[in-house]
Design goal:
Layout (H helix, E strand, L loop, with lengths): L14 H4 L12 H8 L9 H4 L7 H9 L3 H9 L5 H7 L6 H4 L11 H14 L15 E5 L3 H12 L3 E5 L8 H4 L8 H15 L2 E3 L10 H6 L5 E4 L5 E2 L12 E3 H9 L18 E5 L3 H12 L4 E5 L11 H10 L2 E3 L2 E8 L5 E14 L5 E5 L5 E3 L3 E4 L3 E2 L3 H5 L25 E3 L2 H4 L4 H27 L1
Parallel strand pairs: 1-2, 1-4, 2-3, 4-16, 6-14, 7-8, 7-14, 8-9
Antiparallel strand pairs: 5-15, 10-11, 11-12, 11-13
Helix pairs in contact: 2-4, 2-8, 4-5, 4-8, 5-8, 6-8, 9-18, 13-14, 14-15
This protein binds flavin-adenine dinucleotide and iron/sulfur cluster.
Length: 471
């Protein structure tokens, strides 16, 4: 049979229906579709797809196992390199990673690697065996993990499996980092996927201390000098919102995307008044930005009942940083993309509430430092957009609280913690860091990979320390 140049379609909820609910949009392959998609893989001798994977998952091997209906074998293969396959299968930007390099992408569509990863992970989860707790040695070393996002969870899980007693300190009342408070339910189901990943790590014997803000309630030095932790991993992410600094940003009805999504995801504002968290979504909402976070905020606002939701982005469609699939889904749901448009002022009414946004049209000039063409305002092209809610989603930076309370911890000019790329070791002995707090806002797979590298390096560090102490 001739090789199909197209991927097998992913079944999705109908756009009109899903725009009104928070249930998962993409429904996943069934067994027959997964096997048929796996059969498209050529099992290349020099698999380019693997080079595109930030954690080098053995892609041809796991796909081969799906082809042979050895689904347990497939997930075992993936888990050798990826601790969170059900998450990554859903949210990784595959079109810029593995699938971009797949040989089939030269002539048609790449193998649906992400979809197959999700299939293998979901199949495993559906019949998951009980996770067995680790038996810790009486003299097992103690490691503190600060932050429970993908970097912290992966680091904690790996360390526990190696026999370390791990405590995760999380500032919020729920673990999971962006997986819980940022990425919405309709892209990443919390009960089905995120909670189970966390529970499995807990079952290994990892302790979670929630509502524990490091740098406020305790410092890194106190953890090591007074609480007896032998090493610390910092995986606190990049959750500090950035604003443009234009007039009107303090009006009522202006949110940072982080606040908007946190209220919705973590505090179930979308179920107000059953849950006490209020959230005001107006009739006309403008989301400023073009990344995954902007798409999530726009689609969340729609689901909360907004009549018209704009994405306002200063470059063109080709430069949109969001995953293609999310852009496609947002368009299908009716999000109105105002490209080559930049806000210059948020306009308020006499009571201090947003009533509109003044924007200017942009054109693209020469490439800037990022390699993308620089957006330049078109003189005299200002116009007003009638909106009553504005959600700012133009990026986030590191929260400075730990850096400010940890003497000897080197940071970059932007406030990110400096850490070795391979070992995640910081300038402070025994302190390691990884994920967005080091790289700036990036991806789940990179944060997960950093957490695992750090776990391996902490293991080495503590073994060496033990040997030295014995001498
Ligand atoms: P985080 O996930 O940010 O977790 C850090 C944790 O540390 C948080 O729980 C925080 O509360 C806690 N913390 C912070 N300070 C302290 C402190 N002082 N004490 C204790 N705890 C603290 N990536 C993708 O690959 N695909 C996507 O589709 C995608 N979509 C995204 C959508 C949204 C809305 C957002 C916000 C991000 C998205 N990302 C996506 C990016 C991705 O989620 C992050 O790169 C990743 O979660 C970073 O992981 P992390 O472990 O470094 O930090
Ligand atoms: Fe299969 Fe594509 Fe990887 Fe080749 S490059 S092994 S076809 S997924």
């Amino acid at each position: 049979m001739a090789l199909s140049l197209k991927k097998h379609e992913m079944p999705v909820q109908d756009p009109k229906t899903r725009a009104k609910n928070f249930e998962e949009v993409a429904l996943g392959y069934d067994e027959e579709t997964a096997v048929a998609e796996a059969e498209r893989c050529l099992h290349c001798k020099v698999p380019q797809c693997r080079k595109g994977c930030p954690v080098s998952v053995d892609i041809p091997e796991f796909i081969e196992k799906i082809k042979a209906r050895d689904f347990d074998g497939a997930i075992e293969k993936i888990k050798e390199s990826n601790a969170l396959p059900a998450v990554c299968g859903r949210v990784c930007p595959q079109e810029n990673q593995c699938e971009k390099y797949c040989i089939l992408a030269k002539k048609g569509e790449a193998v649906g690697i992400g979809r197959l990863e999700r299939f293998a992970a979901d199949t495993y989860m559906a019949k998951q065996k009980e996770v067995q707790p680790v038996e810790f040695a009486a003299d097992a070393c103690k490691v503190a993990v600060i932050g429970s996002g993908p970097s912290g969870l992966s680091c904690a899980g790996d360390l526990a499996r190696k026999g370390y007693r791990v405590t995760v300190f999380e500032a919020l009342h729920k673990a999971g980092g962006v997986l819980s408070y940022g990425i919405p339910e309709f892209r990443l189901p919390k009960e089905k996927v995120v909670r189970r990943e966390i529970e499995n790590i807990e079952k290994l014997g990892v302790r979670f201390e929630l509502n524990s803000v490091a740098g406020r309630l305790f410092t890194v030095d106190e953890l090591m000098e007074e609480e007896g932790f032998d090493a610390v991993f910092i995986g606190t992410g990049a959750g500090l919102p950035r604003f443009q600094g234009i007039p009107g940003e303090s009006l009522n009805g202006v949110y940072s995307a982080n606040e908007f999504l946190t209220r919705c995801n973590l505090m179930k504002a979308y179920r107000f008044p059953d849950y006490a968290t209020p959230i005001k979504t107006g009739r006309n909402v403008a989301v400023i930005g073009g990344g995954n976070v902007a798409m999530d905020a726009a689609r969340t606002a729609l689901r909360l009942g907004a009549e018209h939701v704009y994405i306002v982005y200063r470059r063109s469609e080709a430069e949109l940083p969001a995953r293609q699939e999310e852009v496609g889904h947002a368009k299908e749901e009716g999000i109105d993309f105002r490209l080559l448009t930049n806000p210059v002022e948020i306009l308020g009414d006499e009571n201090g509430w947003v009533k509109g946004m003044k924007c200017i049209r942009m054109e693209l000039g020469e490439p800037d430092d990022s390699g993308r063409r620089r957006p330049i305002p078109v003189a005299g092209s200002e116009f007003d957009l009638e909106v009553d809610t504005v959600i700012v989603s133009i990026g986030t930076g590191p929260n400075p609280i730990i850096a400010h309370t940890t003497p000897g911890l080197a940071t970059t000019k932007r406030g990110n913690i400096e850490a070795d790329e391979e070992t995640c070791a910081t300038s402070k002995p025994g302190v390691f860091a990884g994920g967005d707090i080091v790289t700036g806002a990036a991806t789940v797979i990179l944060a997960m990979g950093a957490g695992r590298k750090a776990a391996a390096a902490i293991d080495e560090y503590l073994k060496k320390k033990k040997r030295m102490d014995k001498k």
